[in-house]
Fold:
Amino acid sequence: MKTISARLIPALSMVALLGVSATALAAPIHMMEEVVTKTVRIADLNLSSTAGAETLYGRIKAAARSVCSYETSYKLEARCQTRAIDSAVKEVGSPLLASVHGLATGRTVELVAR
Structure:
């Protein structure tokens, strides 16, 4: 089983950070409170299998829903989730995960060269 947990922690932290970046950029500094983060487990997944990639994608989506739930409108929440998921998929750098994402959304992401 391939384990990339050490490499993924910064990527998933980025999911959380990107989740709040849209609102953070639009809000005055005095209104910004805290960065919301969500840890996503991957050590138990085989990311070279479709099942592992699909499971990780589900976990990334759940984390994005969680960190973006603070948004004040459905439109802002949806935009936050889209950016967070796209960013996490890109950072993980798994072609199979990117394929699962593409099939689910109809969008492609450019993977980070490792």
